[in-house]
Amino acid sequence: MKKIGNKLSLRARLTLMYSGLLAVIVCILGITFFVDTRSLLIHYTASHVRAGAKPVIEQWLYEKGSRFPTSDDLKQIAELLARDLTSRNTVAVILDSKGVPIATGKLLPEEPSPPQPESFYYLQALAGKNEVSYIISQQKHRSLVILIPLRQSPTSEKILGVAQVSSPLTSVEQTLFRHGLSLAVGTLITLFIGVGLGFLLISSALAGLNRMIHTCQEISAGDLTQRVNLPRHQDEIGKLAHAFDEMVDRIESTLDAQRRFIANAAHEIRTPLTALRGSLEVLMRGSQDDPASFARLSQGMYQEVMRLSRLCEQLLDLARLEIASKIQKRPLKLDEFFSGLMQQARILAQGQTVVIKQGPPITVLADPDMLKQILLNLIKNAIQHSGRKSTITLGWRFIPDQVEIWVADDGEGIPPGDIPYLFEPFYRGSSSASKGVKGTGLGLTIVKTMVEAHNGQIKVKSQLGKGTDFIFNLPLH
Question: Is residue 17 part of a domain?
Answer without folding.
Answer: yes
